[in-house]
Amino acid sequence: MEKARRELGALRGALEHAEGDDFPEDDYRECDEHLAAATGWIGQEEARLRAKVLQAGGLEPGRVRRSSGRGR
After folding, report:
1. Burial (Cβ within 10 Å: 0-12, 13-18, ≥19) of residue 1
2. In this structure, are residues 14 and 44 in contact, taking their beta carbons and an 8 Å threshold?
3. Closest among 3, 2, 1, 31 to 15, alpha carbons compared
4. pTM summary value
């Protein structure tokens, strides 16, 4: 989703310059807002599912730490 927002921003920049006053500013702003909302939802869903997986494995989500990967 972040990449889609970056691509939309690049497209917006190019078209805004080329089209001038004919550029549909409101449409692009609305599209970016939808992408931002979807990105937020994905983050929330990721956290919810991560907690669910940890709980199913008998772990408490707040007590799990990532290892440093240094052979411990």
Report:
1. middle
2. no
3. 31
4. 0.68
